[in-house]
Write a structure and sequence with these properties.
Elements: H1 4-10, E1 28-31, H2 33-43, H3 45-65, E2 71-87, E3 92-110, E4 115-128, E5 135-147, H4 154-157, H5 159-222, H6 230-263, E6 273-276, H7 290-300, H8 302-322, E7 328-341, H9 344-349, E8 356-365, H10 371-439, H11 444-478, H12 482-485
Parallel strand pairs: 1-6
Antiparallel strand pairs: 2-3, 3-4, 4-5, 5-7, 7-8
Helix pairs in contact: 2-5, 3-5, 5-6, 5-8, 5-11, 6-11, 7-10, 8-10, 10-11
Length: about 500
C-alpha cells in the first residue's frame, strides 16, 4: 500500500502546464477556457475541501490495520496481606503479614488467522513473617490462543480492513466525479460569459443602429418626407434596445462573478475584469455514435464505479457478519518455566530448573438464540442486494443521461447551420426594408421590425454555437471522459468490475 505522502501526491490533479495563465498586472485577467480550467483545478476552494476527503478516509485503514499491531504491556505493583489465625490448641492468635511485589512485562499480537500469541516475563518478591528470608520467583511463559470456529477465517478477520481500503478507493472516485463536474461547470460558465459578452456587443450595436435610425427619421420628418408619427416607432425601438443592453450587461456581470468564484485566481477580487481569449467559433464535426458514449459511461462514469465499490464493500460485510452465526470455540495453550530462590538474580537463573507449568484446553461460548448475529447477517445480505439493485438502476440512468446529452449535442450542432441561414436571410430582409425606407415606400415600423428580427437571429446564432460547446462538455461529463479528453490526470480512471 502507498504511504501517506505518496497517496497525497497522487491525489493532486495533473494538468498540462501550458494551461497556466500568464500573469497580468492590474485588475484585468486575460483568460482562455484552458486557463479557466487550470485556475479552477488549482485554486477552487470546494475542490480543496474534496481533495482532503480521501486522505481523511485513508486514516481508517491505519486504524483497522492497527488491530494486528503488537502490543507491549507491563505491570508493577506492591501489596501487603495480613492474615489472622486462631490457634485453638494453644489459645493464641497468630498474625501473618506478607509483603508482595510484582513486576511483569510482555507483548501480545493478533494475527488475521485468528491466532493470538502472548509472551510474558514475571518476577515476584514475597516477604512473610512466617519465613526468615525473602522469596523470589521468576516465570517466562508463552500463551497461544487459536480460534476454531468464530474468528478463524482470514477473510472475515480482514473484512473491516478491506472495507476501509474500499472506502478510500470510493472517495477517490468521488473526488474524480467532483473534479469532472467542476471542469464541466467552469466550461459552462466560461461559455455563458462569452455569450453574455457577445450579447452585450450585439445589443450595443443594435442600439447604435436604432439611434442612427431615429436621427435619420427625425431628419426626414423635418423636411416633410415622413409623418411625425414615425418618430414614435423609432423612439420605441431605441428604448427597447437600451433595455436589452441593460439586461445584457447585468447578465455579463453576473456571469463574470460566477466565473471568478469558480476559478478563484490569486490576487483577484469581484471587480477584476476578464478579457476573453476564446471566441464562439462553430464546431460542426460529426459526433461519435451514441452507443460508444454509453459504453464509455459504463466503464468510466465515476458515480457508477463508486457504486460498484460500495457493492463490493457490502460483499465483505456479508462475509464478516456470517462469522457471527458460529459459536466461539478457542483452543488455548500456555507454557511456562519457573524459578525460585532467595535472590532476584538467582531466581531467573533457576528458570532451567525443574519448575514449569502448562495449560491446554478449549473455551466454548454461544449465546442462546444468537438473534443479534442473525439480524446483523440478514441486514448485511439485504443491504448487499439493495446495493446491487442500485448499481443496475444507476447504470440505466447513466445510459439515459448520455443519450439525452447526445441528442442535445446533435440538436445544437444542427442548429448552428440553421441559425446561420436565418441570420443571413434576415440581413437581406433588413437591407430591403432600408432601401424601401430611403425611397419612401417603407415605414419606420417595418424597418424596426426587420432590425428586431435580425437582432434575434444574431442572438440565436451566437447562442446556438455556445449551446453546442456546452452540450459537448455535458456529453463528455455524462460519459465520464471529460477529464481524459482535456488531458487531465486524476485518480479513479479505471473501471471497477463487480
Amino acid at each position: 500500500m502507498p504511504g501517506d505522502g505518496e497517496r497525497e501526491a497522487g491525489l493532486r490533479l495533473q494538468l498540462p502546464e501550458d494551461w497556466a495563465p500568464a500573469v497580468t498586472p492590474g485588475r484585468t485577467l486575460e483568460l482562455s477556457i484552458e486557463n479557466a480550467v487550470y485556475l479552477a483545478l488549482r485554486h477552487n476552494r470546494s475542490l480543496s475541501v474534496e481533495q482532503l476527503r480521501p486522505l481523511i478516509t485513508g486514516t481508517f485503514e491505519a486504524t483497522e490495520r492497527a488491530l494486528f499491531d503488537p502490543v507491549f504491556f507491563a505491570e508493577a505493583s506492591v501489596g501487603r496481606e495480613r492474615v489472622v489465625r486462631q490457634l485453638e490448641e494453644v489459645g493464641q492468635v497468630d498474625l501473618i503479614t506478607t509483603d508482595r511485589d510484582l513486576l511483569e512485562a510482555g507483548a501480545r499480537q493478533r494475527f488475521p488467522t485468528g491466532t493470538e500469541v502472548e509472551l510474558s516475563l514475571r518476577s515476584v518478591r514475597s516477604d512473610s513473617t512466617r519465613v526468615e528470608e525473602e522469596q523470589f520467583s521468576a516465570r517466562a511463559g508463552i500463551t497461544l490462543t487459536q480460534a476454531l470456529l468464530r474468528g478463524a477465517r482470514v477473510e472475515s478477520n480482514l473484512a473491516r480492513l478491506r472495507q476501509a481500503e474500499l472506502d478510500t478507493l470510493a472517495s477517490e472516485y468521488e473526488l474524480r466525479g467532483f473534479a469532472e463536474a467542476l471542469v464541466a461547470d467552469v466550461e459552462q460558465t466560461y461559455w455563458e460569459y462569452v455569450l453574455a459578452d457577445r450579447r452585450t456587443e450585439i445589443f450595443a450595436e443594435a442600439l447604435a443602429v436604432a439611434e442612427q435610425q431615429l436621427s435619420e427619421t427625425r431628419s426626414r420628418i423635418a423636411v416633410g418626407q415622413r409623418p411625425e408619427t414615425e418618430e414614435t416607432a423609432a423612439l420605441a425601438e431605441v428604448a427597447l434596445r437600451r433595455q436589452g443592453l441593460i439586461n445584457a450587461r447585468a447578465q455579463k456581470a453576473a456571469a463574470r462573478m460566477r466565473l471568478l468564484q469558480l476559478i478563484n485566481p490569486a490576487g483577484a477580487d469581484w471587480n477584476t475584469e476578464i478579457v476573453l481569449e476564446d471566441t464562439p467559433e462553430p464546431m460542426t464535426f460529426p459526433l461519435d455514435p451514441v452507443d460508444l458514449h454509453v459504453r464509455l459511461s459504463h466503464q468510466l462514469r465515476p458515480e457508477l464505479n463508486e457504486a460498484r465499490i460500495r457493492a463490493r464493500r457490502g460483499e465483505l460485510e456479508v462475509i464478516r457478519t456470517r462469522q457471527g452465526l458460529l459459536p466461539r470455540l478457542d483452543l488455548f495453550i500456555t507454557l511456562g518455566e519457573s524459578g525460585y530462590a532467595s535472590a532476584f538474580g538467582r531466581a531467573w537463573r533457576d528458570l532451567d530448573g525443574p519448575g514449569y507449568d502448562y495449560r491446554l484446553g478449549l473455551r466454548f461460548e454461544v449465546p442462546f438464540g444468537n438473534r443479534a448475529a442473525q439480524a446483523e447477517s440478514r441486514r448485511a445480505r439485504l443491504t448487499r442486494q439493495q446495493s446491487l439493485e442500485a448499481v443496475a438502476n444507476l447504470a440505466q440512468l447513466t445510459a439515459l443521461d448520455v443519450q439525452t446529452a447526445w441528442l442535445e449535442t446533435e440538436r445544437t450542432r444542427e442548429q448552428i447551420s440553421a441559425t446561420r441561414v436565418t441570420r443571413e436571410l434576415q440581413e437581406e430582409v433588413l437591407r430591403a426594408e432600408q432601401a424601401r425606407f430611403r425611397v419612401g415606400t417603407g415605414t419606420a415600423l417595418a424597418l424596426a421590425q426587420a432590425q428586431r428580427d435580425l437582432l434575434e437571429s444574431q442572438l440565436e446564432e451566437v447562442e446556438a454555437v455556445i449551446r453546442h460547446r456546452q452540450a459537448l462538455a455535458d456529453l463528455y461529463r455524462q460519459s465520464g471522459t471529460l477529464l481524459m479528453r482535456r488531458g487531465i490526470a486524476a485518480p479513479g480512471d479505471e473501471e471497477v468490475v463487480l
